[in-house]
């Protein structure tokens, strides 16, 4: 189970959220208190845990990548929780988001080129297609639906060879995972699909069922569940 934007530090988690319902948690916390942070919960003990992806750079300081590896002599498998930056607050944050995307694409391709199967569970902060948000016409110049962001997703799922697992199972409209807290966005289902399972093809082929959990409501995001028919 992957969680993003946990907004916590190690002391906040220890003894309270480091183990839940028989699942052990692994985390990457931001240096800044109350900001960002990601986690993974698993029943099976990983063979390795990778914290961060950009060598201690600006995004590792923001706590955006935790990777649990479950490797055997015959298989390399990773489960990743990743929190992509939002660029909605300022031009500076949008520029940081573009820097993040520029680093993330080759990182994912290097994992794939190394023979590693993986699924990235993430708040990607990008709605890929018009079907992925209610008001797409009025958001074409807004962060999360910019042409450059959408082109990045198209490249990742095209020449990059990764799979948007949810969309392979559910092609329907109004499948949203985030709603603004402003106005009546939740009540009127004015949402965006920003949360993804991005997987290598072999992992994606094992996907059987999907669900966006709308009740109970946990936050401005809704959990995305995918059942996979494979064993660790």
Give a description of the structure.
The protein has 232 residues and is an alpha+beta fold. It has one domain: 4-Layer Sandwich (Deoxyribonuclease I, Chain A), CATH 3.60.10. Helices cover 20% and strands 26% of the residues. It has five helices and 14 strands. The protein has helices at 10-13, 91-113, 147-157, 165-169, 201-204; strands at 2-4, 19-20, 23-28, 38-42, 48-51, 65-69, 77-83, 117-123, 163-164, 178-179, 191-192, 195-199, 207-212, 224-228. Strands 5-6-7-8-12-9 form a six-stranded mixed sheet. The protein has a four-stranded antiparallel sheet with strand order 1-4-3-2, with no helix packed on it. Strands 10-11 form a two-stranded antiparallel sheet. Strand 7, helix 2 (91-113) and strand 8 form a beta-alpha-beta unit. The longest helix is centred in the middle third of the chain and has 23 residues, at 91-113. It is globular. The model has no long low-confidence stretch (mean pLDDT 96).
Question: What is the structure about, briefly put?
Answer:
With about 230 residues, this protein is an alpha+beta fold. It contains five helices and 14 strands. It has a single domain, classed as Endonuclease/exonuclease/phosphatase (Deoxyribonuclease I, Chain A).
In CATH, what is the class?
A: Alpha Beta
Shape: globular
Query: Strand sequence of the main sheet, in spatial order?
Result: 5-6-7-8-12-9
- Computed over alpha carbons, the radius of gyration is 17 Å
Q: How are helices and strands ordered from N to C?
A: EHEEEEEEHEHEHEEEHEE
Global mean pLDDT: 96
Percent of residues in beta strands? Answer: 25-35%
Number of discrete domains: 1
CATH architecture: 4-Layer Sandwich
Question: Which fold name fills CATH's third level, the topology?
Answer: Deoxyribonuclease I, Chain A
User: Quick one: CATH superfamily?
Assistant: Endonuclease/exonuclease/phosphatase
Give unreliable regions as ranges: none
Number of strands: 14
Distance between the termini: 14 Å
Biggest β-sheet: count, sense, barrel? Answer: 6 strands, mixed
Helix/strand/pairing category: alpha+beta
């Amino acid at each position: 189970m992957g969680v993003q934007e946990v907004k916590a530090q190690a002391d906040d988690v220890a003894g309270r959220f480091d183990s839940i319902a028989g699942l052990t948690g692994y985390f990457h916390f931001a240096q800044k208190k109350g900001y960002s942070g990601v986690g993974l919960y698993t029943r099976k003990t990983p063979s390795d845990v990778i914290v961060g992806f950009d060598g201690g750079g600006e995004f590792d300081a923001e706590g955006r990548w935790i990777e649990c590896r479950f490797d055997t002599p015959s298989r390399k498998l990773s489960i990743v929780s990743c929190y992509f930056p939002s660029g909605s607050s300022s031009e500076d944050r949008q520029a940081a988001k573009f820097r993040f995307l520029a680093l993330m694409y080759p990182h994912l391709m290097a994992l794939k080129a190394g023979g590693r199967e993986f699924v990235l569970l993430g708040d990607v902060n990008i709605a890929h297609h018009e079907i992925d948000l209610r008001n797409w016409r009025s958001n074409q110049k807004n962060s999360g639906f910019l042409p450059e962001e959408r082109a990045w997703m198209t490249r990742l799922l095209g020449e990059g060879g990764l799979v948007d697992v949810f969309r392979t199972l559910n092609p329907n409209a109004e499948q949203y995972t985030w709603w603004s807290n402003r106005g009546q966005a939740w009540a009127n289902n004015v949402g965006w699909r920003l949360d993804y399972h991005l997987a290598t093809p072999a992992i994606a082929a094992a996907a059987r069922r999907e669900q966006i959990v709308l009740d109970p409501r946990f936050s401005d995001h809704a959990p995305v569940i995918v059942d996979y028919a494979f064993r660790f």
